C-alpha cells in the first residue's frame, strides 16, 4: 500500500504533478505552501499550512512530492526543500507520468519527476530531485546530476553528462558525449556542441523581430 502524499508548493509545476498523481490513483493529503491560507482549496486539494506542517506527520507515514519547480530565478528553493526534508528522514516520491517511455535499466533516484511524453533510453542514470519535463528526450547512457531541470522538449543525445543543479532550457539540444558542469544554465533553444564548464550561461541565437511593411 502506497503512503499518502503531501505536495510542497502549489504553483504551475505542482498543478502538473497533481494531474499525474490523480492518474496514478495516489492518495493526496494536501498542499503545503507558505503563500496560501490554511484551509483554502488549491488545485482541488486542501492547503494544510506552511512547510512546518509536514512535521506533524512522521517520516514513516507519508511521502513528499516536491511541487516547487526549478527555474534559474528560483535560487535553489527546490533543492533546499528537498535537502531539508530528506535530512530529517522524509522520502520524496519518484514520479513517472504513465505516458513516458523509460528503458528497463534506467536508474531514477528519489524524487525524480518524469513528465508526460518523455523518452529516457537505456543505461541512463538520473540523480535525486531532478525534473525531466514534458516531451524531453534523454538518450542512452546519460548521467544526470541532482536538482537538474531538463525543460520541455530538450534533447540530450547519447552519453551526455550533466552536473548538479543544471538548467537545460526549453528545446535545447546537446549533442552526444558532451559534459555540462554543475550550476550551468543552457538557454532555451541552444545547440551545445562543446563541453561547458561549471556555472556558465549558454545563450542561444535570439529571434530578430521586425515589422512587416505591407504597403
Ligand atoms: O517550465 C515548465 C514546464 N514549468 C515551470 C516549472 C519548472 O517551474 C513552470 O512554468 C514555472 O515557471 C515553475 O513552476 P513553479 O515552481 O510551480 O512556479 P510557480 O507557479 O511560481 O509556483 C511556485 C509555488 O511555490 C507557489 O505556489 C509558491 O507559493 C510556492 N512556494 C514559494 N516558496 C513555496 C515556498 N512552497 C513551499 N512549500 N515552500 C516554500 O518555501
From TrEMBL:
<dbReference type="GO" id="GO:0016746">
    <property type="term" value="F:acyltransferase activity"/>
</dbReference>
<dbReference type="InterPro" id="IPR018357">
    <property type="entry name" value="Hexapep_transf_CS"/>
</dbReference>
<dbReference type="InterPro" id="IPR020019">
    <property type="entry name" value="AcTrfase_PglD-like"/>
</dbReference>
<feature type="active site" description="Proton acceptor">
    <location>
        <position position="140"/>
    </location>
</feature>
<feature type="binding site">
    <location>
        <position position="149"/>
    </location>
    <ligand>
        <name>acetyl-CoA</name>
    </ligand>
</feature>
<dbReference type="Pfam" id="PF17836">
    <property type="entry name" value="PglD_N"/>
</dbReference>
<comment type="similarity">
    <text>Belongs to the transferase hexapeptide repeat family.</text>
</comment>
<feature type="site" description="Increases basicity of active site His">
    <location>
        <position position="141"/>
    </location>
</feature>
<keyword id="KW-0677">Repeat</keyword>
<protein>
    <submittedName>
        <fullName>Sugar O-acyltransferase, sialic acid O-acetyltransferase NeuD family</fullName>
    </submittedName>
</protein>
<keyword id="KW-0808">Transferase</keyword>
<dbReference type="InterPro" id="IPR041561">
    <property type="entry name" value="PglD_N"/>
</dbReference>
<dbReference type="InterPro" id="IPR001451">
    <property type="entry name" value="Hexapep"/>
</dbReference>
<keyword id="KW-0012">Acyltransferase</keyword>
<feature type="domain" description="PglD N-terminal">
    <location>
        <begin position="5"/>
        <end position="70"/>
    </location>
</feature>
<dbReference type="Pfam" id="PF00132">
    <property type="entry name" value="Hexapep"/>
</dbReference>
<dbReference type="InterPro" id="IPR011004">
    <property type="entry name" value="Trimer_LpxA-like_sf"/>
</dbReference>
<dbReference type="InterPro" id="IPR050179">
    <property type="entry name" value="Trans_hexapeptide_repeat"/>
</dbReference>
Amino acid at each position: 500500500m502506497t503512503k499518502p502524499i503531501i505536495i510542497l508548493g502549489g504553483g504551475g509545476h505542482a498543478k502538473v504533478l497533481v494531474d499525474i498523481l490523480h492518474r496514478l490513483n495516489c492518495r493526496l493529503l494536501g498542499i503545503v505552501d507558505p503563500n496560501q491560507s490554511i484551509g483554502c482549496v488549491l488545485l482541488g486539494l486542501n492547503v494544510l499550512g506552511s512547510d512546518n506542517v509536514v512535521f506533524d506527520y512522521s517520516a514513516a507515514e507519508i511521502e513528499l512530492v516536491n511541487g516547487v519547480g526549478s527555474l534559474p530565478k528560483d535560487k535553489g528553493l527546490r533543492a533546499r526543500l528537498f535537502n531539508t526534508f530528506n535530512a530529517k528522514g522524509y522520502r520524496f516520491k519518484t514520479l513517472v507520468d504513465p505516458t513516458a517511455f523509460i528503458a528497463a535499466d534506467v536508474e531514477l533516484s528519489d524524487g525524480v519527476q518524469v513528465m508526460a511524453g518523455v523518452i529516457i533510453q537505456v543505461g541512463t542514470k538520473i540523480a535525486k530531485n531532478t525534473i525531466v519535463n514534458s516531451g524531453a528526450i534523454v538518450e542512452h547512457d546519460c548521467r544526470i546530476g541532482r536538482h537538474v531541470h531538463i525543460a520541455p522538449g530538450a534533447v540530450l543525445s547519447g552519453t551526455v553528462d550533466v552536473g548538479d543543479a543544471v538548467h537545460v532550457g526549453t528545446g535545447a539540444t546537446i549533442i552526444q558525449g558532451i559534459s555540462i558542469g554543475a550550476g550551468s544554465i543552457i538557454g532555451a533553444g541552444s545547440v551545445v556542441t562543446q563541453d561547458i564548464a561549471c556555472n556558465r550561461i549558454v545563450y542561444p541565437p535570439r529571434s530578430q523581430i521586425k515589422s512587416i511593411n505591407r504597403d
